[in-house]
Amino acid sequence: MTNVDLKLTGGRVHLPGGPADVDIGVTDGRIVAIGDVGDAGETIDCSGLDVLPGVIDSQVHFREPGLEAKEDLESGARAAVLGGVTAVFEMPNTKPNTDSADAVADKLARAANRMWCDHAFYVGATAANAEQLKELERLPGTAGIKIFMGASTGDLLVAEDSELARVLASGKRRVAIHAEDEARMNARLNERVAGDPASHPVWRDDESALLATQRILRLARAARRRIHVLHVTTPAELELLGKHKDIATCEVTPQHLTLAGEEAYPRLGSWAQMNPPIRSGAHRDGLWRWLNQGVPDVIGSDHAPHTREEKAKEYPASPSGMPGVQTLLPLMLNHVAEGRLTLQRLIDMTSAGPQRVFGIVGKGRIAVGYDADFTVVDLKARWTVEESWLASRCGWSPFTGMALTGKPLGAIVRGNRVMWDGQLAAAATGAPIRFESVAFG
What we know:
With 441 residues, the chain is an alpha/beta fold. It has helices spanning 73-82, 101-111, 133-136, 161-168, 182-187, 200-203, 206-223, 235-241, 254-258, 261-268, 281-291, 308-311, 328-337, 343-358, 436-440, and strands spanning 4-9, 12-15, 18-20, 23-27, 30-35, 40-45, 50-53, 55-60, 85-90, 118-124, 142-148, 175-178, 227-229, 248-252, 298-299, 374-384, 403-413, 416-420, 423-424. It has 2 domains: 4-51 and 369-424, Urease, subunit C, domain 1 (Roll), CATH 2.30.40; 54-358, TIM Barrel (Alpha-Beta Barrel), CATH 3.20.20. The radius of gyration is 21 Å and the shape is globular.
């Protein structure tokens, strides 16, 4: 007779109080014991490995429906779990846009038995659906509302203050923001230089980002609405956001913490093009300075794949965006190995942080009663990112060929070992993520 369904043994387990050499017992997909577990139906030996709370990537674009040549829900989720990510929030700029109850229901149906990780879907804000957002944000399986203040991939755009105020007035959940100022960018279109992707951050400059962040903070305070500013790229924005933590949380990406424009654009060309842009090494260093001051709350990948044929077009015809869900954790583990942040801080930004910011139910920590979501890593593994390892349908990464220290070895979602040592489970068992605000208002 077994005491638990599953036991993880031998690993260094990262609990809310710190790391400990303990066993974990799982029954019916939830953690039921930490320490002395007893017998189990299945035992996973984690000797020499670190067991982290399941990594949550709260910004991915999996492109389905309508853009499946770039990615779909199955391939994106496969890339996620191969990179150690156990849950994702997927973005609404698909074709059609995810801007209605029917569109959310369609994505949830598409995800069933196809997504390897747990998942939630953002609803895209528009001028047309502003008054309906208070109902849409409460749909089961929704991560909340997403506002594009500046045009990016797709045609979701809410650029004017009056429209932004209407969106912010409708609902209560935290609103995710793409903060680039559309009017300024339109006025600066001539800053783009044909054939020169290095002109991308000149066009979409620091001021475009800072101006939009200043505007949305002012509007959010007037509306008494909490916001979450995505993929922050400038130290000035992080300094500003640090003064508004009562209403604003924010995200940084591994790309902006790793790449510097001076090196990236000559080497990668349009493959380094994304919105907001990869900026200078000084910007990157500034992001790290504010990260170590505690200002960014989460790390999200902004996984935004395009095909090789699209990215090979001459700038500015080339689309903005790069894949990143599979490399999020490897890149950040390498930064841990190189001393830029602690493993404790990384765990906070990829599990406990998303739980706090978005009110996720049952995820974000290794504790009794929580979902049995674990990311198992080998902190000492030395390896190189190879194209053959990548699972995204787009088939490329700006980090191919990069030598790293620290590798995801396993992904366990609600007690299901969905990935171990590069091998997937027999079936995809991802389920919708639950949220406090949807359950209890």
